[in-house]
Structure formats: structure tokens, C-alpha cells
Input
Amino acid sequence: MNTGLWTPPGARSPRVTTVPSGNVRLSDGRVLRLVQAEIPAVWAGPGTLRVIATLDDTPHGQLLHVSLSLRGRNPDWETIRAVRDAFYPDTIDVMMVLPRAEDYVNLHAHTFHLWQTPTTWGLR
Output
């Protein structure tokens, strides 16, 4: 399951990550237990936090897409950030997209999506 991701041209450092192949420890100490080991990989954690990671084929190559949700409420910023840090190295820019209403396809009301960006933002 440790599939490398696409590296954008001109990236300053290697921008390759993998989908974790086991349990994932968040920075706040919580552990997401691997429930399903195939792509999409599914993790479940305390407070009904659920994380799904897929390697999606895009016009920019294969990019990591991570969705996270809680059963009865939106995840807070600390949880979103902890999941981001657990699944993406700091050398990868990650975005959270809020699409147009007609493109919104969540099947669960409290799901957020993190996407690996295909290029660097150049903010440095």
C-alpha cells in the first residue's frame, strides 16, 4: 500500500508521501486504528473520528486525498491540522476545498476534504 505520489516539476524538495499502512498516531496522542487496509484505506479513532485516504488519479498525476469526519459535529481546527500532519509531510502543500454548491458531493454532513496540491504555492 505504500504507493509513492507524483512529484511536481520544479519542487524544491522531494514531494513524495505514502498512505500509512498501519495505525496512525495524531500529534495530540490520539490513535486512529486502521480498519480497512486497501485503497481506500479507512481509519477510525476516539470520538468517532473517521479518516479515509485515497490516491486519486488527476490531470496532475496521482494525488493524496484525505477525508475526515465526526459523527455528530464538524471536526475542530486542531483535529483537521493533526490529520493533515499525520498524512502529509511538511514539504507538501495541502488544501481544503469548499466547492460550488452544485459540485458539493458529501454524503456525510460533517466531512472535510484535504487534497495534496499539484504544485507548490510559492509562499516562501
Notes: The chain is about 10% helix and 30% strand.
